[in-house]
Amino acid sequence: MNDKxxxxxxxxxxxxxxxxxxxxxxxxxxxxxxxxxxxxRRVRQAAKELGYRAPxxxxxxxxxxRNVVFIVTPxxxxxxxxxxxQAIQQAADEHRFSTLIFTTYRDARKEEEVLNMALxxxxxxxxxxLTPQNxxxxxxxxxxxxxxxxxxxxxxxxxxxxxxxxxxAGVLIGRHMLELGHRHIAFITAMxxxxxxxxxxxxxxxxxxxxxxxxxxxxxFTRDYTPQEELNSIDLEQRIGYELTMKCLKEKHRVSGFxxxxxxxxxxxxxxxxDRGLRVPDDYSVCGFNNLSSSRIxxxxxxxxxxxxxxxxxxxxxxxxxxxAGGSAVNDxxxxxxxxxxxxxxxxAPFRQVPQEKS
Length: 359
Fold this sequence. Notes:
This protein is α/β, with parallel strands linked by helices. It folds into 3 domains: 9-60, 434 Repressor (Amino-terminal Domain), CATH 1.10.260; 68-165 and 308-339, 3-Layer(aba) Sandwich (Rossmann fold); 166-307, Response regulator (Rossmann fold, 3-Layer(aba) Sandwich). The protein contains 13 helices and 12 strands. It has helices at residues 9-16, 20-27, 37-50, 56-60, 79-94, 108-121, 135-142, 166-179, 197-211, 227-231, 236-250, 263-275, 309-326; strands at residues 68-73, 98-103, 125-128, 147-152, 160-164, 184-190, 217-223, 257-260, 285-287, 304-306, 335-338, 341-343. The strands form 3 sheets. The protein has a 6-stranded parallel sheet with strand order 2-1-3-4-5-11, sandwiched between helices. The chain has a 4-stranded parallel sheet with strand order 7-6-8-9, with helices on both faces. A two-stranded antiparallel sheet has the order 10-12. The chain is elongated and about 80 Å long. Mean pLDDT is 88; it is low at 56-63.
């Protein structure tokens, strides 16, 4: 009876200090990705020392996922995330990689399923368009499959990251509204929890900026939703923006401006103001975050913060590709941080007296 343990690609990966996907591509002589001579030598030497023999099915073909990058995103109905996904796909296509898109609807269990699937299929790598909830799991998988996270500066896991300082984005918006004379504003948001740290950081930036000006205030209106609710509605956040703004207007708070946590929610804010017979920016100023393509339309003209969506997504894939092709050590973490730019459009204007609601 032969009790000798079967040698796996993971064994070779650990001995050679090279990612699992790189080991797979080197041993299967993939032609469209190049590796340094030293990386190839380490992999082949580790395979020889361990007595690795490729299964017949691998000698004839290839692993199901070895040319595939997994893109993990909360949803694709929000134009911000669909824009990130498309830009990643463009970069992947240029390097002859295929992509699979997985929507989690902010459900930690779905994230876990995708991570396990990536391991099972031997995916070339993974990109998360939002900071994942189970960071320890991501860091563990990253030792076998390269992972890049597009996250917030203060919440990044120990993996390669393309970061945004969302706190500074909130500061930009807060200063803009104060400079226009809006001393009392409403912050309209959804899902303010640890799984959505980007939103928390934006609010903190706005709040802290307003706290520096005596007599000013930020009212927060928020509503949670479940992963199932997000799955079943493509315009959920726009509706939440509408509902929360209606609530604020009906309660007759003295706010003169609204800051929405993203452009999608801001569209709901704009609709609610219009449905109450009021005008932007004559009666209320409105700001958002993300600079979606639709926010530039002249009839919308939303003041927002530029988040360099296309450039960040392409950079994320570039980092992933280097990790796949170069076989660099997992501990050599790359962090790339982008700065923000305020885009002032027609939805904000200097303070006017808070209007009396029209009947």
